[in-house]
Every structure is written in C-alpha cells, then in structure tokens.
Amino acid sequence: MTDDRPSVGLFVTCLVDLFRPSVGFAAVELLEQAGCRVEVPRAQTCCGQPAYNSGDRADTKAIAEQVIAAFEPYDYVVAPSGSCGAMIKDHYPALFADDPALGPRAQALGDKTHELISFLTDVRGLEAVAVTWPGGATYHDSCSGLRELGVKAQPRRLLESVAGLELKEMADSEVCCGFGGTFCVKYPEISNSMVEQKADTIEASGADLLLAGDLGCLLNMAGKLKRRGSGVQVRHVAEVLAGKRDLPAIGESRGS
Amino acid sequence: MSGARAAILAGIRRGLKRGALSGDARAELESRLAGPPVGPVPDRSRANHALPIDLFESMAAEVAATLERLPDSEAVPGAVARYLKANNLPAALRLAPADDLQALPWDSEPLLSVEAGPADPGDQVSVTGAFAGIAETGTLMLLSGPAGPTTLNFLPDNHIVVLRASDVVGPYEAAWERLRARNGRGSLPRTVNFITGPSRTADIEQTIQLGAHGPRRLHILLIDDRDESAS
Amino acid sequence: MRSTAHAFTENAKRAVEDPQLKRAMGHVRKGFIEKRAKARARLPEFEALRDAGREIKDHTLAHLDFYLEHYEKTLTAAGGRLHWCATAEEARAAILEICRQAGARTVTKGKSMIGEEIAINDHLEANGITPVETDLGEYIIQLRREPPSHIIAPAVHLTKDLVEADFRAHHKQLPEGRSLSEPAELVAEARQVLRQRYLEAEVGITGANFLVAETGSSVIVTNEGNGDLTQCLPKVHIVVASIEKLVPTLEDLNVLLRVLARSATGQEMSTYTTLSTGPRRPGDPDGPEAYHVVLLDNGRSAMIGSEFHEALRCIRCGACMNHCPVYHAIGGHAYGWVYPGPIGSVLNPGLIGIEEAHHLPNASTFCGRCESVCPMRIPLPRMMRHWREKEFERHLTPASVRTGLTLWAALARRPRLYQALTRIGSALLGRLGKRGRFESLPLAGGWTRFRDMPAPEGPTFQSLWAEQRGTPGGTSGGKR
C-alpha cells in the first residue's frame, strides 16, 4: 500500500503528554484532516527547554541530539506549542552551529519543524474548520509562538471559521502571562503579579473561553482563574478547532 | 591617565583580535569619515510632498510651539510687541546681538525696551534668529557664536525665534549640509541647539508639563522671504 | 550606589506588594508603550532606521579604537580635554580634581547614568562639594536619597502625592497654604528652586547620549532644558561618557536620533538635542570656559568580542524596560543596581559580577518583548541565557536546582524509563485530582501558593497512543 501523504512526526511536548493528552489527539485529528500521515516517535520526552533556560548546555545538547535522531525520518515535525516548536526550529541550529556533524542535521530538522496551527494554515493551506462552538472566546498570544515563530493571525483566522464562536480580543494579548517555565517557581511572586494582570484583562474581555497555543501558559492562566473563582474556561486552541466539546476544560473535571 | 588610555585601547584591540589599524583599513575609515553613507531619510521630509514650510509649521504645532507667518522682516517688531501684549508679558526683551536682528525697525515700537546680549537671569523674553528650521520634526537649529548667545535659548521664560522661510529645509541631513557649507567638514560651533517645541517634562506620573526648566513658550516668526530670493 | 542585586528575590517580593508602586507602574505600562507604537506607526522608515542604526553601532564597535583616537584628535583641536578612565575610581578622581581646580562648592548635574554608575554624587559630597541634580526626576529622587528606578524616567516609581510630601519636607521657604496637588504646581516649584542653583554652580556635569568622532562633539538629548542650563551657565563643563557612546559622523547621528526619542518617549524628536564642541570660542558672549570629557571604560572594553558585545549597541532609550512585564511588576529598584530592566539584567552582571547579580538574568520569562522593541535589536534574552550558562558553568546555580536538573535531564534522555514513570505519575495525579485541579501540592508550593494546579487528565498521551494505534513507534516511521 502506498501512501502519498506527507509524514508528520508529532512532537507531543512533555506537558501535553503528562497533563492533557487530548490536545495531542486533537492535533492528530487536525493534521490528518489536513492530509498528513501522523506518527508519534516513541523516543521523545522533552525538547530540553528546562535545561537550556537554566544554562545547562551540555544536557540540552544531549536531549536535542536525541530529538534530532528521533524526528529526522519525517517530512515535517509539528508541535502543539510555540515554545517547543521554536526550541527545535531556532535554538537547536544555534546550539550546534559550530558542530560540523550535528549542525547541518539540526538546521535541516529546524527547517521542517512547525508549530501546529501555523503548520495547518501556512504549510497545509487550511483556511477553515467545520466545527461548531458557541460562545465568546479570547486568544492569548504566547510569547515564543508570537515573537519567534510569527504565530498571530493564523489561529485567529481558523477560529473565525468556527460556527457560533465570537472572538473577543483582550487588551494586551501579546503580554506574557508570567509562566516562563521554571521562572514561575523560581520567582513565584513576580509570576503571580503577571498572571494576576493577565487574568484581569482576560476577565475584562467579556469572553467565557480563554484560548492559547501553549499548554504551559494555559496551565498558569487556568490555575489563576480557577483560584480566583472565575467562570472563564481555559482550553488549548487545538481542542476548539477539533471540536472537542465533551472534554472538560483545563482545571475542570467532568461534572464540575 | 595615559596608562588608562593605553589599557583601554589595548583591551578593545584584544577583544577585536587585532592590532592597531593601519594602511588600507585605516584609509577606508578615513574615507568613511569624509563621506559617510546616508541612512534612511523619512520620505515625508522630501520637498516634493509638501512645501517644507507647511510641514515645518504643522510639526512645530504638534510640539506646542506657536508660529506666525510674516510677509517680511520689517514686520517682526510689531509682531513681537503684539505677542508680548497678548500673553501679558512685559514689553522688554533681550535680543541676540546679530546684525540682521539689530537692524530691524525696533523704533517702530517705542514702548518696547530692546537690549542685545546674553541672557540675564531676570530676562522674561528673548528674541533670537535660527540657522535653520527642519521640517521633518518641526525643529529649529540654533548656533552659538558672537551673534548667538546660548543662554538666550534656555534662561528666559519666553523664546521668540525669527526664522526665514528660505532657511527651512526638509531633513536633518540638509541642515548639516548647510552648516558644512559654512564651517567646513568636521568643525562645529561650540554649541548646536536643536530645539523642538518648548521645554517639557513628564517626570511626574507621565503627564506632560511645559516649561520644566527652559522656556515655557516657544514662538516662531516665520518670514516669508522666498519670493524675494526667487525673483 | 551600593548594590542590593543579591537580594533581588526579597526586593521583588516587597515591590509586588507595594500598592503605591503598582499605581505608579500603571503609568509606564500604558503611556510609554502606546506613545512608542504611535510614533513607530507614523514613520514608515522606522524598521529600516533600526537596521541602519544597528549597522552603525556594529561598525563603530568593530573600529572603536580608531574612532576613539579620532575623537580625541577632534575634541582636542576644539580646545576640549579628554580624560581616559579605565575604572569608576579613576573617573571619580578625575572629576573631583577638575572641580577642585575650579574652586567648586556647588556642582549642577544633568541626568547621567554614568554618573550613577560611578556614584559621583557621593564622592563629591564626601569631599565637601554639593552636587545638585537638575533633571526634575533626578532632583526628586536626590531629595529622597534614592537611586533612579528607570534610565530615562528616574522617578517613575513615584506618585504625585509622594513628590508633594518630599517638596514640603525639603523646601523650607514653601508657604504652608501653597497648593502642590497638581503636577504643574510641582514642576513650577522645582523650577523656581533650581533656578538659583544653576546660577550658583561653578561646574556643570552632564552625561552624553553620543560622542561624535568627526567633530569632537558630545550630544545630550533632553526635554526639560536642565542639561543645557547646566552646561552653559557654569564656567566649567564636564561631560561623563562611556566609550561605547561613540558614533563616527553627523550622518550616523541622524539615524540614531531618529530612533532614540521614538523608542524612548514616543516623541518624534526630544525637545532639546544639543551638540557641544569644546569650550567657549573667541567672541562667544557665553558658554563654559573649560570643557572636559571624562571617558569611562569600566569593563566595557572587556565586553568587546565577548558574548555580550552586542549589548554595547545600547543607546539607553529604555524601551526594553518600558515593555518588560517583569519590570512592570516590580519597578526598577528591585533590580538593585544602576541599570534596571532587561538591559540591566545583561549589563549589571558584567559590571558588578555574576555572583552579586546572578538573579537578574534569571528573572525573565524570555518573553522576548524587549528584543522586539529594542531599536538596536540587541538579543537581550539570548544574552540573559549566556549569563545563566556562565552561572551554571561556575557552579553558582543553587545545588537543589542543579541536582533536580541533573535528575530530570538523565530521565529525559531515557525515553522508556521516562514514559514508564510519567505513566504512573500522571495516572496517580489524575486520580487524586478529582475536581480537575489541586489547591495545594507537595513540592509545588511556589505554584499553588498563588494558583491552582490543573490535574492531569489521566493516562499520558504516549500510553493512550500505544493502546489506540498499537504502533510500535520508535524511529521506524517516515517516508523516504
């Protein structure tokens, strides 16, 4: 049996793997709808950002080398996260810039690596999704996706095609939510001040649903909104685009 | 401190992984100094869009400078007297000791007390010329020299500037070009003041207040001398 | 100033709980950002100017020795005196000596971050000379005996009621009934008080935004006019500037001026841009009789060619801090030394040591907003990461963090073990977190003190995927 569809190696991301597998399945559905054959290499754990952002270059390189080997066979590498996507796309090539063996391999992998939503629109030409999701949603631009990968218009364009969904822009959607990986536990008070500010603007938008493309930011904002007793639901944008309405929102349980 | 000089230069060269420049490398830098590349010049400052004086006027207004157009320089004393009266200012001014300004018919305003020289702390009003007006940002360019005391630009509360329309240029580059034509390359007067509106501060709660230390008011008298020079 | 950068965590904790600071920082969050965005939108050439500015700075740094020597030549030809100073101490000594020779009792000062860096005010005071800050913001914080909290808006952490209280406490001549509740009244009061000081001073000290090699000029960019009064009234003018302020020519200056004010305050051009070249000339009716430039290195030449080389492109506009959400949350004082915000987190460890300032490059989410607005396109997050690498290499990272990281990395490199453990972990947490979230979790106090921790859905993606698709996985896939 021949299969002409391009192969996509899904980089699940450690947070999706651990906290919200449904985002991974939503990504698979969307990628398959966009005509891709999706595989999930078993030899993946994390992109290495915790080590990289802590100044531990040696461990970062070891992890990156493993990711490069695991994902090299695919036509594309796609991650449901701007920060992991940018790590592979931009930072791996920089890490191995002086390595004659790994440098070109890291660059080649980076060249075919994409964040999920921008891959769907910019590479696969997806313009609309055929799902319904009634309500008002606001979209937070996660920093890496926005500034390193240029993800801004793509998710909004696809969300506009969702039947029943009204996009209500919050003020300062481009301002960091205060997650920052290890930052939020190293400097909890600063992180809290930032996510408080973010929660204020989310609530002021009047939306009842908060969306973003990075689970780290979503966990942070959901955790804060729940702690404040806010009724705003929080989801990864892929869940909405794949129409996963049965799934409880982040930080909620069935029946809550 | 020659030790420091040598240490700093050596440190820089160590970082750059080379010794002192010589020969071609040096010649290349000398020629860049003599004819530097010109960076992007805002399109709006080019004359084919609008007359530079129109752009100058609107940009100056944006920064809270006031401007009155006058048909010729003879009209300056009258305009100054009117301005002082309208703003309840004393009829006394300190004039820049420039020949063209001193030659104006100040006698036509007998109530005006006019003294030439640098500013005294008590002076309320100064009247100076300007070397150029730069339309790009509504900026005045004033030079220090025997005819241009710098204190007049900062000490009095009210600064009146007499500017000829023929001295209004588009971008900063054009103003430097004029100055180089006068002074030669690489040589400037002791002070070159670019002045864009009256003094201001936003140091308290980001609210803009005029007249922080320099003049509270900047009034420009724009002399329409273009026809004279063209005909 | 004495550094409190080592106490960053405590500084920041205090700062986020300060309601007055929060109010003041609200002005930064709005004002600066909107004004810059407007100015940028109005100038189609803005991005091209940023690129051109970066190239000018790169070119200058690559030939800094040449341009410094040329500057020395042109400055000297104009009658100015150049004082090369390798360290802050040398700069302080040079300034004190000039002031002594001028018989100075009072010295007026324009705003200068280099002045802060070398702590010149303390040094003058200790030697019986009174330094008077004349920039309104600097004047206010001098009364309060505080360092600046922002490089272009030193008193941005204060609200007007605090300024009023300071003026009432320090201005003895102030009649009691006099209203000072509005910013305009406060500005007028400061103007009146400082007028006298300008006239008394024997020496005026200013900083420099740029030094121009072509002409031997120093350039200050201000709005109040205080810098100009500071330099045109006293008989001696001292400029303090660091070596990276050099630009080759007036053409290069044009480019940088076009991005400076727009990036800083959102103005098209600051009110006063002044080029000073040497002392008063024959026939000049006013101006200083002597003109000195105290040129400071203080560790900068060592940055050339290092991973921090590009930070020397900085033109001190403050856009990085104006746009930094961490700066908005904690203000400038929490950083604990002269330069706050993202540029401070890059410069300070080099200037006062990574041991002292190790928190600063860590206190960033790497959101990248600073780099996106920096007119000189300095890769600030990348440089903060370099500092973290240096910290890690030198074993300055706390042992607990280091151990945790090593364990985690060892696990991340063994996918089978990793997946076995995460399968158990997520299933367990998923079962415990029945409400979909935890309000407290052991080992996650930093998180759950302020927010809930969403619970895992249940089994990991990898285990579910293996069940559903039954694919062997591995690296066998792909289409080649």
Explain what the structure shows.
The complex is a heterotrimer of chains A (256), B (231) and C (480). In chain A, helix 12 links the parallel strand 7 and strand 8. Chain A folds into two domains: 7-122, no CATH class; 128-241, Rossmann fold (3-Layer(aba) Sandwich), CATH 3.40.50.11810. Chain A has 13 helices and eight strands. Chain A has helices spanning 14-19, 21-33, 49-52, 57-71, 82-95, 102-111, 116-123, 143-149, 153-160, 183-186, 188-204, 215-227, 237-241, and strands at 7-10, 37-39, 76-79, 113-115, 132-139, 163-167, 209-212, 233-236. In chain A, the strands form two sheets. In chain A, strands 2-1-3-4 form a four-stranded parallel sheet, sandwiched between helices. With 256 residues, chain A is an alpha/beta fold. The mean pLDDT of chain A is 96. A six-stranded parallel sheet of chain B has the order 1-12-7-4-2-3, sandwiched between helices. Chain B starts with a helix and ends with a helix. Chain B is built from seven helices and twelve strands. Chain B has helices at 2-16, 23-34, 52-62, 76-86, 99-102, 172-183, 226-230, and strands at residues 66-70, 92-95, 113-116, 125-129, 132-134, 139-143, 158-164, 168-169, 191-195, 200-201, 209-210, 217-223. Chain B has two domains: 1-37, no CATH class; 47-230, NagB/RpiA/CoA transferase-like (Rossmann fold), CATH 3.40.50.10420. Chain C is α/β, with parallel strands linked by helices. Chain C has three domains: 43-172 and 183-302, Rossmann fold; 307-393, Alpha-helical ferredoxin (Fumarate Reductase Iron-sulfur Protein, Chain B, domain 2, Orthogonal Bundle), CATH 1.10.1060.10; 399-469, no CATH class. Helices cover 52% and strands 11% of the residues of chain C. In chain C, strands 1-10-7-4-2-3 form a six-stranded parallel sheet, sandwiched between helices. In chain C, strands 8-5-6-9 form a four-stranded mixed sheet. In chain C, strand 5 and strand 6 form a beta hairpin. The longest helix of chain C is centred in the first third of the chain and has 24 residues, at 19-42. The radius of gyration of chain C is 27 Å and the shape is globular. Chains B and C meet through helix 1, helix 2, helix 6, strand 9 and strand 10 of B and helix 2, helix 3, helix 4, strand 1 and helix 8 of C.
